[in-house]
């Protein structure tokens, strides 16, 4: 009797995390269908409608060019999230390959890879990204390359640590004792048992990568005018902060709320994976 | 003996990372698409000027020769010239760096003054209201876009409430003697209290903006280290000898948190200097961040890469200093018993 | 004269009561052993004296020379801790702060009571030397990791007794040590207690260490006291079946080596 209650309790998702999950789902849905549910054309300049406050026609107001802020946020979700997704996909692949190599490739390989990641850690990702942006020219494509280049060291370190831990576990030892080949051991035994950490880390990183991407757009080297990317929208609104706060506040809220939701879900996944962390965090 | 080996290893590692940084910069300058000769000659240069620049930069040499030239130049402080200011990049950066360091120092002060007590209290009142509030503050700090936060603070605190100046580093018509290049210090040295308070008022919002995203990480680091200490037998025994709570927390437990704390703070210092790119322009402050943003927008390759090198070197040097400080605050390290560098928490980036 | 008097002490964590009404007294200058297997509530009982565990709620009475401690104010408790009651834990590895010198830690109980640094240092070094740490004045500024387990436990004892408490609570003080070092540390504790007229409440699961050390023995099981007796009487004529079982589990030289030791299951079976 009491055990079944306890089990049910454990399975129930805390309210905050449930809300966060719903928000994440909503944001992802908007990224897919946003352009179709936008009430107005996100790019239609209408100077007679400029800087209108939030109202029944334009729920979140209009920007300096008379474009509907809500429509732009709904449309821009795709740019921001797609860029984030590409960055994470690229860095995860690099992280798994290089990180595994570092973990199983012997001391010299490990040392070389780790020193390269040290270089990556020495420069904040936004700064390194600026370097790549200037070398490759502005645009969302170079922003994606730039952030990927600055983001992979973190994944290499993570995968290296996890793979090393897995290599020392008992089932790997028994696989070795059974004479499983090295390649097969790593691909079939070690990696499948190491990579569950990734879905936690990727969820947590959505917020951080999104912040860097939109930061680059804010500076002017990411998504270009007239893109409805959220950071670019904030940059465009920055010049008339005082006459139209809505054009500044709502895109920022979109970033912040998405970032908070993904962070919360990431934390929840992490505790789910390793319940002992609950006390710590 | 262990100490000498430790120091030697740390120095060597710093050198290796610096070398890697130069390789990275060289790749960005030379190897990636985009013509460095054109970048060096300027956007409106004639074909002859570009060819001359190509010759001068040795771009027709083998890559290794080019790298050797680049490395020796960097070691001599030659980071190339800015096509926009027509000056040496290093000289440009030297002019604006003090202003950035002022901002970073102020942000670091806020980071420590808010983040450390927040972490300590959250650990001490674990699971209670205060801990939950600290988590919320940390979550907000880590997820709010820095550039957006800066604009919001301007909008609300400066524009609407008039509590702080909107931007700039001094009021209209105010001047300080150029002594150190750090405006608050120069204002203080000028002996004019009104000037000093004006400089401080201009510093607060950008510093707060810059600090916001870092507070979460240091608070979390302190909290988790404090929890370990507060649960340790030696803290219970300290209580059993009749030590007061304040003494137990500060002298017995916090002292242990110093080791991971200093590691994180050292990394944060270097990163803060980088994040100025998202803060300085918003507040119309001089500094390496604003310089970099201008350079990126003007396609000023050498200025951007030079800034990356400087920021990277600051990071390497601060971390070397922190590594040496560790020797002093972590006695087990001196006898080679502790890991040289505690694992950084996953949230540091 | 009675120093520590525990009457009908109940300790619970949340809903769960783990100590169910314990009566126990320790005379001034006497050494009492509180014996029981792990989970018997012996540690919880002893630690209730200093009330260091905020999660534990107490009822009943714990009085130290007539001063009631259950429900006492925080400031009262603090004045008892260290100066009237000292505490030693099981594991000397975790009992010392790794980033502070052992000297600093030994001096703390004196420093917080306003003793001058110089005097605290002299007293600390003298005590450490008395506790058998060679070269005490030179080693005073060393760090915990530079000492062996037995030496560390001497440092922990020094911290506990430097403020000259009337009662020392020693919670399994030798369990984590080498068998060879165990006896040394216990003998030392005995000597120091006698010299200073200090009472000791020794908590242990090991009846074997009790014989040469304690005057009285209290046996606990499942949060209750099952037997209280002077040590000689307890060994010669144990009353409770559980105690008999425990005694059966102690290896003794005077017993026929062919006779097997009693297992825990057998004790459980006898005691019910």
From TrEMBL, chain A:
GO terms for cellular component: plasma membrane. The keyword Cytoplasm does not apply. It comes from the Bacteria. The keyword Ligase does not apply. It holds the Pfam family OppC_N. Residues 77-266 form the ABC transmembrane type-1 domain. Its main location: membrane. The chain crosses the membrane at residues 20-38, 81-104, 116-134, 140-159, 197-225, 245-269. SUPFAM superfamilies: MetI-like. GO terms for biological process: transmembrane transport. It is a multi-pass membrane protein. Keywords: Cell membrane, Membrane, Transmembrane, Transmembrane helix, Transport. It is found in: Cell membrane. PANTHER family: D,D-DIPEPTIDE TRANSPORT SYSTEM PERMEASE PROTEIN DDPC-RELATED, OLIGOPEPTIDE TRANSPORT SYSTEM PERMEASE PROTEIN APPC. Belongs to the binding-protein-dependent transport system permease family. This is ABC transporter permease. It comes from Kineosporia babensis.
UniProtKB/TrEMBL annotation, chain C:
PROSITE patterns: ABC_TRANSPORTER_1, ABC_TRANSPORTER_2, PROKAR_LIPOPROTEIN. Residues 4-247 form the ABC transporter domain. GO terms for molecular function: ATP binding; ATP hydrolysis activity. It is found in: Cell membrane. InterPro entries: AAA+_ATPase (IPR003593), ABC_Ni/Peptide_Import (IPR050388), ABC_transporter-like_ATP-bd (IPR003439), ABC_transporter-like_CS (IPR017871), Oligopep_ABC_C (IPR013563), P-loop_NTPase (IPR027417). Its main location: membrane. It is a peripheral membrane protein. Transmembrane segments: none annotated. GO terms for biological process: peptide transport. One of its GO terms (cellular component) is plasma membrane. The keyword DNA repair does not apply. Keywords: ATP-binding, Cell membrane, Membrane, Nucleotide-binding, Transport. Belongs to the ABC transporter superfamily. PANTHER family: DIPEPTIDE TRANSPORT ATP-BINDING PROTEIN DPPD, OLIGOPEPTIDE TRANSPORT ATP-BINDING PROTEIN APPD. This is ABC transporter ATP-binding protein. The lineage of its organism: Bacteria, Bacillati, Actinomycetota, Actinomycetes, Kineosporiales.
């Amino acid at each position: 009797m009491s055990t079944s209650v306890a089990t049910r309790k454990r399975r129930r998702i805390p309210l905050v995390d449930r809300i966060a999950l719903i928000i994440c789902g909503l944001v992802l849905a908007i990224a897919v269908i946003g352009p179709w549910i936008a009430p107005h054309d996100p790019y239609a300049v209408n100077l007679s409608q400029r800087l209108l406050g939030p109202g029944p026609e334009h729920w979140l107001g209009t920007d300096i060019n008379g474009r509907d802020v809500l429509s732009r946020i709904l449309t821009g979700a795709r740019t921001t999230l797609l860029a984030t997704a590409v960055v994470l996909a690229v860095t995860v692949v690099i992280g798994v390959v290089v990180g595994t190599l570092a973990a199983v490739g012997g001391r010299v390989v490990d040392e070389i890879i780790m020193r390269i990641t040290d270089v990556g850690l020495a420069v904040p990702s936004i700064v390194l990204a600026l370097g790549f942006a200037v070398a490759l020219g502005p645009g969302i494509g170079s922003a994606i390359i730039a952030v990927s280049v600055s983001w992979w060291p973190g994944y290499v370190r993570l995968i290296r640590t996890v793979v090393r831990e897995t290599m020392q576990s008992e089932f790997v030892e028994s696989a070795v004792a059974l004479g499983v080949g090295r390649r097969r051991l790593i691909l079939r035994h070690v990696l499948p048992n190491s990579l569950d950490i990734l879905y936690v880390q990727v969820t947590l990183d959505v917020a951080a990568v999104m912040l860097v991407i939109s930061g680059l757009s804010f500076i002017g080297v990411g998504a270009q005018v007239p893109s409805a990317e959220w950071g670019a929208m904030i940059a465009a609104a920055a010049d008339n902060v005082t006459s139209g706060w809505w054009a500044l506040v709502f895109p920022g809220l979109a970033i912040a709320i998405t970032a908070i939701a993904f962070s919360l879900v990431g934390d929840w996944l992490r505790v789910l994976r390793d319940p002992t962390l609950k006390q710590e965090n | 003996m262990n100490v000498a080996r430790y120091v030697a290893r740390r120095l060597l590692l710093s050198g290796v990372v610096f070398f890697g940084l130069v390789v990275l910069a060289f790749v960005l300058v030379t190897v990636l698409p985009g013509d460095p000769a054109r970048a060096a000659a300027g956007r409106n240069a004639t074909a002859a000027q570009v060819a001359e620049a190509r010759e001068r930069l040795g771009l027709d040499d083998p890559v290794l020769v080019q790298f050797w030239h680049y490395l020796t130049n960097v070691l001599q402080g030659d980071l190339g010239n800015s096509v926009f200011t027509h000056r040496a990049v290093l000289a440009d950066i030297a002019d604006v760096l003090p202003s950035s360091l002022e901002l970073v120092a102020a942000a670091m002060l806020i980071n420590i003054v808010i983040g450390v007590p927040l972490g300590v209290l959250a650990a001490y009142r674990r699971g209670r209201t205060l801990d939950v509030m600290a988590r919320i503050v940390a979550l907000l700090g880590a997820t709010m876009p820095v550039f957006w936060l800066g604009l919001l603070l301007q909008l609300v605190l400066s524009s609407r409430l008039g509590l702080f100046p909107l931007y700039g580093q001094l009021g209209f018509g105010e001047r300080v003697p150029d002594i150190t290049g750090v405006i608050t210090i120069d204002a203080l040295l000028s002996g004019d209290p009104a000037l000093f308070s004006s400089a401080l008022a201009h510093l607060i919002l950008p510093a707060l903006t810059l600090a916001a995203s870092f507070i979460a990480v240091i608070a979390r680091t302190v909290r988790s280290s404090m929890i370990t200490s507060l649960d340790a037998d030696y803290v219970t025994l300290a209580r059993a000898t009749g030590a007061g709570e304040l003494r137990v927390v500060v002298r017995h437990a916090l002292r242990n948190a110093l080791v991971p704390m200093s590691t994180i703070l050292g990394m944060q210092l270097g990163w803060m200097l980088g994040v100025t790119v998202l803060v300085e322009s918003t507040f119309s402050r001089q500094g390496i961040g604003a310089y970099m943003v201008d350079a990126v927008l003007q396609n000023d390759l050498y200025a951007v890469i030079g800034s990356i090198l400087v920021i990277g070197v600051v990071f390497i040097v601060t971390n070397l200093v922190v590594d040496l400080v560790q020797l002093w605050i972590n006695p087990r390290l001196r006898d080679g018993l502790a890991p040289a560098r505690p694992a950084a928490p996953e949230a540091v980036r | 004269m009675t120093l520590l008097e525990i009457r009908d002490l109940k300790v619970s964590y949340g809903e769960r009561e783990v100590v169910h009404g314990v009566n126990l007294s320790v005379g001034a200058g006497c050494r009492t052993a509180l014996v029981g297997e792990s989970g018997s509530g012996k540690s919880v009982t002893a630690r209730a004296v200093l009330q260091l565990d905020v999660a534990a709620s107490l009822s009943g009475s714990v009085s130290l020379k007539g001063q009631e401690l259950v429900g006492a104010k925080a400031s009262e408790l603090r004045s008892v801790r260290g100066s009237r009651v000292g505490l030693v834990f099981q594991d000397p590895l975790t009992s010392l702060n790794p980033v502070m010198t052992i000297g600093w830690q030994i001096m703390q109980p004196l420093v917080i009571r306003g003793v001058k640094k110089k005097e605290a240092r002299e007293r600390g070094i003298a005590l450490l030397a008395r506790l058998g740490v060679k070269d005490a004045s030179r080693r005073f500024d060393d760090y915990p990791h530079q000492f062996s387990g037995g030496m560390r436990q001497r440092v922990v004892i020094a911290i506990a007794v430097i403020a000259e408490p009337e009662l020392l609570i020693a919670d399994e003080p030798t369990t984590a040590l080498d068998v060879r070092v165990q006896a040394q540390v216990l003998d030392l504790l005995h000597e120091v207690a006698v010299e200073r007229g200090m009472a000791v409440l020794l908590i242990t699961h090991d009846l074997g260490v009790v014989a040469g050390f304690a005057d009285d023995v209290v046996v606990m099981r499942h949060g209750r006291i099952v037997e209280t007796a002077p040590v000689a009487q307890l060994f010669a004529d144990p009353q409770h079946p559980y105690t008999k079982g425990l005694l059966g589990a102690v290896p003794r030289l005077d017993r026929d080596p062919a006779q097997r030791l009693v297992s825990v299951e057998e004790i459980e079976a006898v005691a019910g």
